[in-house]
Amino acid sequence: MAALRIKNVIIHEFIKEAQKPIDRNNLFNFRDDVLDPENTIVLGLVSTITGLYGKKGNSAYYGVFKEDETRRGPVPDNFATYFAYTDEDTQEFIDFTVLITRQIAEEAEKESWSSGGFLIYADYVSDDNRYFIVTMVKNKPGMRISRMLEPEELEQLDLSKIHQAARISFLRYEQFQNSPEVEKSDLNYLSFISKTPDKNAASYFIAALGCDKGIPSSRATTSLPFEINKFFESQEDLQHSSLRFRNEVIEYLGEKVSSKSPAKLSDIENMAIAHMTYIEEDRREELINLLMEKLNSDEVQIPSEFNVNRKAYEKMKSVSFKTVGFGYTFEKGMLGINRNAEVFYNQRDKSLTFTNLPESARLDIIKVLKDEKIID
User: Fold this and answer.
1) Is residue 23 exposed (0-12), middle (13-18) or buried (19+ Cβ within 10 Å)?
2) 192 and 62, same structural domain?
3) Quick one: pLDDT band at residue 28, thresholds 50, 70, 90?
4) Where is the domain boundary, 289, 310, 331?
5) Sign of CA pseudo-dihedral 185, 186, 188, 193
6) Which among 73, 202, 213, 369 is least buried, having the fewest CB atoms inside 10 angstroms?
7) Which carries the bigger pLDDT value, residue 321 or residue 130?
8) Which GO terms fall under molecular function for this chain's record (predicted)?
């Protein structure tokens, strides 16, 4: 796990029982000051949350704040103000977390199945990247946060599945703000997860933060088979299956285009397991966890589910030809009429050139040429 430096951390409590009206006389339990970021238990709590965030069982969705000012609420503008503070302003942090907590309560009132819990806020730095995270943890057996809103012994905290959470990347937020409008559709700085089976009950958390759920489907569609192939090639015990599995994933995306249903990482997980039946169970579980974490990571940003982009899928479909003596198969998106294309078609010479052969293919060709004594 990357080294973690906590700038500020605090816990508030929002009180509401599912299917019961809000008691406005007993709605909040606010903490007035931040927790000690160097306290071992506090550091352990935040490290546990950030370590589980986006991992298998806590898969993240990606997006940005809503642009429509009539629908996004006060959080996006207040984050912009908070972001502008260059100094570590503790009171600004506390005020911002109180505002979010109040906004969550306001949205939760609209959903009868919603319930309250502890809201853990942290402003932290990991791998030189700064993040703001808010996590809701339910007050269930085994949960040990004191009446003073301080975490107690960490082994009592059952955080294996975060209930709901959202995280903002300061770096990606700044990149988004400084990018031309035409490039913004491919950028995301906000990610969130929800473990509530009732999507309506979970929606209040997303609405309160002003989140606009969804990564551009063209990017997710293109990235999925590419990243899967890249991962399989990086693991010696999976390399022989990399191309076959990649092609299966492309076929899967085509099925989702036809059925107009979303692609899901849970489906990809099951498909990957089928290619690892010969691997020892512990190693297989390790590989699956690594693959799912990579696909859903802040770096790759493939969400738990997404609608397949037809245009991006069509580019991945193969062009094939076979005759006596030779044949070829390549993706449509690789074909071009300039020399920079991976598969270059020369209109004048009516020839086809593969310009970027993998090392393994190059070595195979050289071996054949040597065997035939065409080269030394």
Assistant:
1) exposed
2) yes
3) confident
4) 310
5) positive
6) 369
7) 130
8) double-stranded DNA binding; single-stranded RNA binding
